[in-house]
Amino acid sequence: MAAAIAIVISELLVQTLITAASISAGGAVALAAAANADATATADGSAVGGSVGIGAGVALVLSRVVNQATVPAGLTVSAGSLVVSATVAEQDGDDVSTVTATATSGAGGDVGIAGSVAIAIIDHDTLAAIAGLVQLSGGDVAVTAASAIDATVKALPGTDGATGESFGLGVSFALVILDDETLAHLAGTGRITGAGGVSLAATARTTAATEARMGAAATGDSGVAVTPAIAITLSNVTTRARIDAGADGLITLAGDLALRATQNATATSDAGATAAAGAAAVGVALALTIGQHAATVTLGRSIAAGAG
To answer: Which residues pair with 156 in a beta bridge?
Structure first.
């Protein structure tokens, strides 16, 4: 018997923390947070020989990222211009959080049993927000939230998977659950005065892919082989630029207002199963993809733009 288990738990918290009641600057004020979290788990379990050969590979990744830049409620920012950004950190040209889980297994004997299980659970929240008071002297306000995730999960056979003389059983299961929320936000408690233009931009790029493949064979004349392979991708991606209703009711700008929500989200599943035996062979492959993707902009209060 051979078993390999790889577990990776990745948690990253990036925040701008301001405890002062006010910030005053003659020029620009920038509040910026950036995150880029890669996580990889690889497991390979193979067993050959003996009356019963059992090989198992299990790879599990849990990735949690919170990336926030905010002007909190109760803070007053007085400046020429303001930038609030929560984005993806670039590392040597890498501007994507990459999450991978790969499990491989194989077994051989009179009875061969192989199982590959690969799972990635990903929860990333990105927020750039204004919830306090912003007083500018004619400059612009830019609120930017951006996320980028590439998730790949594979459950595969080692060589031929499970091979036995009398019985072969090979199982592969690949699952990715991706939750990504990206929000550029002017909260109901947020106020902006004296600004030239205001822009809120939320951008998300996500890829979620699963692959499950397995093979099983029984070489004897009365042998039986069974192979299920299941790949499931659940992708929930929400990208929003939002201005909530506020007590002031009206934002007056000398320049323009721009609200943008841009999303490029891809979700795929791929499954394959092969079975060969002298008496009975059953191979079942299931690939299931469920994608719930939304990009929205919301304007909850009146704007007087170009009024300067």
So the answer is: 104
Residue with tokens 């036995």: 164
**Per-domain residue ranges of the chain:** 2-304
Distance CA 247, CA 106 (A): 64
Residue-wise pLDDT tens for the chain (308 aa)?
678 999 999 999 999 999 899 999 999 999 999 999 999 999 998 766 668 888 999 999 999 999 999 999 999 999 999 999 999 999 888 999 999 999 999 988 899 999 999 999 999 999 999 999 999 999 999 999 999 999 999 999 987 889 989 999 999 999 999 999 999 999 999 999 999 999 999 999 999 999 999 999 999 889 999 999 999 999 999 999 999 998 777 888 999 999 999 999 999 999 999 999 989 999 999 999 999 999 999 999 999 988 65
Q: What residue type is assigned to position 69 of the chain?
A: A
- The residue written with tokens 């003659």 in the block is 26
